[in-house]
Amino acid sequence: MTEQTDKRAERLKAALRENLRRRKAQVRGRSEAPAEPPRREGDTDDPPQRASDDPT
Fold it and tell me: Do residues 36 and 28 make contact, with C-beta atoms less than 8 angstroms apart?
């Protein structure tokens, strides 16, 4: 192989290794997390208000 091909193969190998490491960490995180959906910023436990629910 040429030097350029060797470098490309090494980069690919490192990227695949990192991808596998990240995927394994995600699986571990999911198995340890509670079974509730993730919360987004601004979410509350209150149901959404409708215009007809406004007491004013």
Answer: no
By C-alpha distance, which of 30, 32, 10 is closest to 22?
30
User: Do residues 9 and 1 touch, judged by C-beta distance below 8 A?
Assistant: yes
Amino acid at 5: T
pTM for the model stands at: 0.48
The Cα 13–Cα 6 span in angstroms is 10
- Give, in degrees to the nearest 5, the angle at Cα 25 between 41 and 45: 25
Query: What are the pLDDT tens digits along the chain (56 aa)?
Result: 689 999 999 999 999 999 999 999 999 888 775 666 666 777 767 666 666 665 66
Token duo for residue 51: 């215009």
